[in-house]
Known about the structure:
Oligomer: single chain
Largest sheet: 6 strands, antiparallel
Strand order of the largest sheet: 4-3-2-1-7-8
Number of helices: 5
Number of strands: 8
Shape: globular
Order of helices and strands: HHEEHEEEEHHEE
Helix content: 10-25%
Distance between the termini: 14 Å
Structural class: alpha+beta
Amino acid sequence: MSQGADETFTNVRGVDEVVACVVECWASLFGARTCADRAAAPTVVEPAMAVVVQEMVDAGRAGMMLTTDPAAPTSGRLVIQASYGLGECVLGTQVEPDTYLVDKAGAVLLESRIGSKAFELLRHPDGGQWRITVDARRSSQSALTDREVLDLAALGMQVEAWAGAPHEVEWALEDGTAQVVDARPIATPTSRPPTVTA
């Protein structure tokens, strides 16, 4: 499963499978997309990659958050996208997620747009994942309560304060508890790094 230029694997089980997936991640450093990115932003630095292996979060709902709205960077608001199941549906733009705009200063939910959320990916007990169709009634409901939106916004603001810069935060809710599964600076034309990172 791939979400960016480099490969990402979820719900990997057993040492042998973990090792094989780490090798696949390293190999993706020389894949067509990654090589094209390097060609577009030439650098003399040899390509290198560290592979993060972390415990899988059994997400009931997940998504991503931009701690500054890139469409209006001075607006003082952040953007949260959410769907059911694992977050790769949102990150890989496989479903139309729910989108929430939050005023950071007042911790106020400004706007909610409900996406179609046609399916969800769930962990398979034997490894890998299931793709499950979301029924029309559930699809038309918000994946998050207003309280959950504001709690996630607070978490995103903590990440931004700790890092000292706006961040893109991948998050997951497992049994109602929010967890950050990845966070990276929001790339802009002036802040985009010259090399591809994992």
